[in-house]
Design brief:
Elements (H helix, E strand, L loop, with lengths): L2 H9 L13 H82 L17 H7 L12 H5 L2 H7 L60 E5 L5 E5 L19 H12 L5 H10 L6 H26 L5 E13 L2 E12 L4 E5 L7 H8 L6 E3 L12 H4 L14 H4 L3 H10 L5 H19 L4 H13 L21
Parallel strand pairs: 3-6
Antiparallel strand pairs: 1-2, 3-4, 4-5
Helix pairs in contact: 6-14, 8-13
């Protein structure tokens, strides 16, 4: 630009241009308000971004602190691992050295761990047979090398720590309920003998015999003319006559009889053969009658268990199985029902008249208000509900099981008896079997020995107790079998 133009421009400045001159006052006010609001929103966004930036800085600082801490822990672990590897290598070296020293001490082995070849060509069996125990066949050890070997000196002395609390303690898993010690006569030892240790060696013996106890009963007459009978024991004699009421069997004998028949599934002819081997004669009908007499007391227990098992809101698994019953010289196929209460740990077997009809199930359940009755698809259960609605009920209540396997497993005791005994002689014996199996299965669910329960139960019955609520497997006072 020329100098005179600059001078002219200085003398005549450009006129001032107002871009808002054509706007009204209201338009100007509206524009000012919009500009102020936009500035406010920009300021808020800036504040939000600054707050986020502050949080990011704080997070970064915390991450840096955590990273520093982790690096310190990692370095510490790496140092510990290096020390462990060093210690492990030293242990391996010591173990290898000890191995070499042992080979040097107890045999003519090279330090490389490879045995030298024998001069002779004898096989292993020939070499073993050729050994005669003379000093020529025993490897010789250099005494000087043994004395100079610290590992050999340590091996000559016991290195295992002696624990005083384990002295005279022996670990045995096989143990009998009773033991009879048989002592040695120390006077029979040779005079020059020196006793190093005294201990017992064990052997087990099973004693099986049947004893006939004869209780002397006195029949006497009183002045009033009445005749009485009584047992008046001498000192040292049993205080009472040990027999189950209505039988000639003791409590233990009937307990073993029930255990063999309904737990071991031994038929009567096998039981009679066992008894005859113990020099006793007894008829099959007598054994059957004794079990019936004991089964009457078992039936009273079953009534109590049934009331407890079918209490309100119980979850019951139910099933049934067949059996053969001899009626008027014919064999008929009948049914035994069984109900399992898993929560109460009870199992009940019901025979009734052997019917598999709906009326039999209704009679068994009675007026009980159960929460559910789980069963298979047998159409007798249809009167209780429709299956499709209840098929997926186990998804809503953890007390239900997805199947009825727990009830089906309780078929096994009946199936074993059915296989060995083939049939029941009458409806009465089928009911007796159901009562015994009820108590046996309940004992198993509580982990109680059925044999011990029979012994104690019949003993309490012999003493005159009839409070059956206190004579159940879970209330009679028998501890679970931990063997």
């Amino acid at each position: 630009m020329l100098p005179h133009n600059l001078e002219l421009r200085e003398l005549t400045p450009e006129p001032c241009f107002d871009p808002y001159s054509d706007m009204t006052t209201e338009e100007k006010s509206r524009l000012i308000i919009e500009l102020m609001s936009s500035q406010k929103s920009d300021r808020e966004r800036i504040d939000t971004l600054m707050a986020k930036l502050d949080r990011m800085v704080e997070s970064q600082l915390a991450a840096n602190e955590a990273s520093t801490l982790l690096c310190g822990q990692l370095s510490e672990l790496m140092s510990k691992e290096a020390a462990y590897r060093l210690l492990q290598s030293e242990n391996d070296a010591l173990a290898e050295q000890l191995k070499v020293n042992r080979k040097t001490l107890y045999g003519s082995k090279s330090q490389k761990g490879i045995s030298n070849k024998k001069d002779n060509n004898l096989s292993r069996e020939e070499d073993k047979d050729h050994f005669d125990g003379s000093p020529a066949f025993v490897p010789q050890v250099d005494e000087q090398s043994v004395e100079n070997c610290p590992q050999a000196q340590s091996l000559s002395s016991p290195t295992k720590e002696i624990r005083m609390y384990r002295q005279d303690v022996e670990y045995r898993t096989m143990k009998a309920g009773k033991s009879v010690p048989h002592h040695s006569d120390m006077d029979k030892l040779p005079k020059e003998a020196k006793v190093l240790k005294v201990f017992f060696k064990y052997s087990y013996e099973q004693i099986s015999e049947i004893l006939e106890h004869q209780y002397q009963v006195v029949r006497y007459k009183m002045p009033d003319g009445k005749i009485y009978e009584g047992y008046f024991p001498k000192i040292g004699e049993p205080e009472i006559i040990d027999k189950v009421p209505g039988t000639h069997t003791s409590c233990n004998f009937l307990a073993y009889l029930a255990f063999n028949k309904y737990v071991l599934d031994a038929p009567f002819y096998r039981e009679i053969s066992r008894i005859m081997d113990d020099q006793m004669r007894v008829s099959r009908m007598t054994l059957s009658n004794w079990l019936v007499k004991g089964g009457r007391y078992m039936a009273e227990l079953v009534k109590v268990l049934k009331n407890m098992r079918l209490e309100k809101d119980s979850v019951i698994n139910c099933d049934e199985t067949w059996c053969r019953v001899k009626i008027k010289d014919t064999y008929r196929k009948k049914c035994i029902w069984y109900l399992v209460n898993k929560e109460a740990r009870m199992a009940i077997y019901c025979y009734g008249e052997g019917s598999r009809s709906r009326d039999a199930l209704r009679l068994i359940l009675g007026n009980s208000q159960l929460k559910s009755l789980q069963s298979d698809g047998y159409n007798v259960y249809m009167y209780l509900d429709t299956f499709w609605t209840q098929l997926f009920a186990y998804l809503k209540d953890g007390r239900y099981s997805i199947d009825n396997s727990i009830a089906e497993r309780f078929i096994r005791p009946l199936a074993g008896e059915r296989k060995n005994s083939l049939f029941f002689g009458s409806d009465r014996m089928a009911n007796v079997s159901a009562a015994y199996h009820t108590i046996i299965s309940t004992c198993r669910m509580h982990g109680i020995s059925a044999l011990e329960f029979f012994k104690k139960f019949f003993h309490e019955i012999m003493l005159g107790r009839r409070d059956y609520e206190s004579l159940l497997p879970m209330t009679i006072g028998i501890k679970p079998n931990r063997i």
